Amino acid sequence: MNYNVIKEGLVSNGTILYPTDTVWGIGCDATSEEAVQKIFEIKQRAESKSLIILVDGVEMLKEYVSDIPEKVITLLKNTTKPTTIIYKNPRGLAKNVVADDNTVAVRIVKHAFCEKLIACLGKPIVSTSANVSGEETPVSFEKISSSILNSVDYIVNLPLENESTNSSTILRMLDTGEFEVLRK
C-alpha cells in the first residue's frame, strides 16, 4: 500500500473510500473545510449532521481537544469495541466538522491501515459510512453504491479486516462526569 499517494490526495483536498475498524468509510483531511464539504456533497447530507473524526492515538487527540477527562482516557484504554466520544471545544479542525454546539465526535482508531494513514498524514481524517445519507449502511465493499464509488477521488484497495457490520458506540461526557450513550 502506497500511503504517500493517498496522503498526497488527502493533502490536495481529496476524498477516499476506505476500510475502517467498523464499516467501509468515506474520508478526507478533517482540517480541510473544502474536503469536508465534498464529503457532505457525496453523502447528500445536511451539514447540520456532524461527522466522526479518526485520530491515531491519545497524543493526536490532545492536539485537537483540550479538555479530555481522565475518565475518558481510562475508558479508551480499556475498551475493545470501537468507541467514539463527543468532546467540547475542539480546535484546529475544519469548521464544518464541528457541530453547532461546538462539539466534535472523535474515535481513536484501532485498525492498522487507518493508523498508518493518519500517522503518515499527520492529521485526523473524517470517517462516515460509505452510503448516501438515509440509505442502508453497506456491510461489504460489494454493497457500496456506484454513486459513492464514482464520487470519491481514491478507493483504497484493501479488504475490510475483521469485517464488521456495526458502527461505533457513541458516548457523550456529561457535566456530571457520567457518560450518556447516544449509540450502542
Report what the structure shows.
The protein has a single domain, classed as Alpha-Beta Complex (DHBP synthase), CATH 3.90.870.10. The protein is built from six helices and nine strands; from the N terminus they run αββαβααββαβαβββ. It has helices at 3-11, 33-43, 58-64, 70-78, 112-121, 146-151; strands at residues 16-18, 25-27, 52-55, 83-88, 103-108, 125-129, 154-155, 169-173, 179-183. It has a nine-stranded mixed sheet with strand order 7-1-2-6-3-5-4-8-9. It is globular and about 45 Å long. The relative contact order is 0.26.
SSE layout and pairing:
Blueprint: H1 3-11, E1 16-18, E2 25-27, H2 33-43, E3 52-55, H3 58-64, H4 70-78, E4 83-88, E5 103-108, H5 112-121, E6 125-129, H6 146-151, E7 154-155, E8 169-173, E9 179-183
Parallel strand pairs: 1-7, 3-5, 4-8
Antiparallel strand pairs: 1-2, 2-6, 3-6, 4-5, 8-9
Quick synopsis:
This protein is α/β, with parallel strands linked by helices and 184 residues long. The protein has helices at 3-11, 33-43, 58-64, 70-78, 112-121, 146-151, and strands spanning 16-18, 25-27, 52-55, 83-88, 103-108, 125-129, 154-155, 169-173, 179-183.
